[in-house]
Amino acid sequence: MNTRSKDLAPAVRSILEAASERSGGDERVSVEARSLPEAFAAAEADGRVPVIAEVKPTSPTTDGARRDDPVALAESMVEGGAAALSVLTEPDHFDGSVESLERVREAVDVPVLRKDFLVREDQLDAVEADVVLLIARFVDDDLAELVEAARDRGFQPLVEVHTREELAAALAAGADLIGVNNRDLGKLEVDLSTFESLAPEVPDRVTLIAESGIAMPADARRMREAGADALLIGSAIMDAEGDDAAGTGGDVSANTRRFTAAETEEEV
């Protein structure tokens, strides 16, 4: 586990502590993954901004929750043009579950990212997915080993970074899918210039994803102009803020389309 956890915001430290106690799978998984870069290329060819839309019932940084069926949400996101999906499996702070991911992945034909806070190799075996998230700040010196362990199982590892130091560690670990998180896990503040400052240092061989803080189509265009191959968008699509107790929320398909059409005249 990362020895710098004391520098994390209390909410994030709580997530990390819970993650360190969560058990992994009983048996080693083997995955035939759907290609994330190919899904992005297909979206581009179709005139869509490549978007990973996130099925996120709630989070420590949003108010309210979505209680819709995860499969219905996922299908609406794909209908709105999402090139891939992210499904939260963290149960304690995001109301996620591996069961939701299993159901979503069975229902759609796009790549599905497992969004969780993995700190040990055995936790990779909890559920099959196409892509797994590895947060550089959380795993510290174990990053290279976890990248290799994920690939050995057939996963595509997406390594999340926020600083130049973390980016260097991701590249040294051989990551070819890198996400730049615009949210500082120490202060929970969002700054889109984080991506803009790191993107020029990422080699062309790497598929680069902008994460967090993309709240409107103008933000999507800004990240794309800065070099993002794709965007990971959660709250702006789920529209959890201001949701009512019944969990009806906004139109997820239309919300997704706002971003996938951000570079065309079809923006809604």
Automatic annotation (TrEMBL):
Renumbered residue ranges of the record's region Disordered: 244-268
Lineage of producing organism: Archaea, Methanobacteriati, Methanobacteriota, Stenosarchaea group, Halobacteria
All copies of domain Indole-3-glycerol phosphate synthase, residue ranges: 16-242
Cross-referenced SUPFAM superfamilies: Ribulose-phoshate binding barrel (SSF51366)
Domain of life: Archaea
BP GO annotations: L-tryptophan biosynthetic process
Keyword Lyase: yes
Reaction equations catalysed: 1-(2-carboxyphenylamino)-1-deoxy-D-ribulose 5-phosphate + H(+) = (1S,2R)-1-C-(indol-3-yl)glycerol 3-phosphate + CO2 + H2O
EC nos: 4.1.1.48
Family membership: Belongs to the TrpC family.
Pathway(s) it belongs to: Amino-acid biosynthesis; L-tryptophan biosynthesis; L-tryptophan from chorismate: step 4/5
Pfam family, one: IGPS
Keywords of the record: Amino-acid biosynthesis, Aromatic amino acid biosynthesis, Decarboxylase, Lyase, Tryptophan biosynthesis
InterPro entries cross-referenced by the UniProt entry: Aldolase_TIM, Indglycph_syn_Halo_TrpC, Indole-3-glycerol_P_synth, Indole-3-glycerol_P_synth_dom, RibuloseP-bd_barrel
NCBIfam families: Indglycph_syn_Halo_TrpC
Molecular function per GO: indole-3-glycerol-phosphate synthase activity; phosphoribosylanthranilate isomerase activity
The protein's name: Indole-3-glycerol phosphate synthase
Cited CDD domains: IGPS
